[in-house]
Input
Amino acid sequence: MSQPFETLSEHRCFGGVQGFYRHASNEIGLPMRFGVFLPPQAENGPVPVLFYLAGLTCTEETFAIKAGAQRVAAELGLAIVTPDTSPRDTGIDGASAAWDFGHGAGFYLDATQAPWSRHFRMESWVTRELRELVLSHFPIDPARVGIFGHSMGGHGALTLALRHPDLYRSVSAFAPIAAPTQCPWGEKAFGGYLGDDRLVWAGHDATELIKSGHRVPPLLIDQGVADQFLAGQLHPHLLEQACEAGGQPLTLRRHAGYDHGYYFIASFVEDHLRHHAAQLG
Output
């Protein structure tokens, strides 16, 4: 029986395999790309998996190439799935006009506003279609699934875990957009994808979800203090306040001198992988 995806490339890596793939997505209505790192332990049976959601302008390759995660993932026996950050080649006018909206900026939600609603169904793709494809066709333990991400993808990891608590047993984020209803990136994306109703927006804002009673396993968040987007876009203090008020376990670590990029992520990715491994068992 043929696989429901195309293998673009596979590379031996720390005893495991880093692969990149493409499939015809029913949710998106277009081809979608994703990466999978399988540790050497996967040769002997199903392994736990982490879904990593990347940030604005990134692709399914960014984390695999820049974060340096495979060495520790191989040691811990963790698979890592890296979805692309949006549909591509949608034919939508203006979809490539800005770096923070449209192509490369799907925000991990299902758009409700035309013309975006036809293809920008990232929440359904990540939580349903891609998840089912990976769990069905790779040696993955469906009972041990975690999620993490960076910036826009940190927002995605937090909100998808809060909105789908039965799917993810561990959660973490690097420099997430923690309160998107209160920052320019989020206002632009939510207005374009979801319309003007800010009550609808709140359903995709981690801070607001925690305020409304949603809960997840203990969170780990790392934030660089020299992050150029910290003051204007990220607002981790608002998430911190909501977690404290609501009793949501949170470890928020602030790191002097670190910015928003992958040198920061590479510096702390081992801590995140060990955090997930401990929770996934």
Q: What stands out?
A: The chain is about 35% helix and 25% strand.
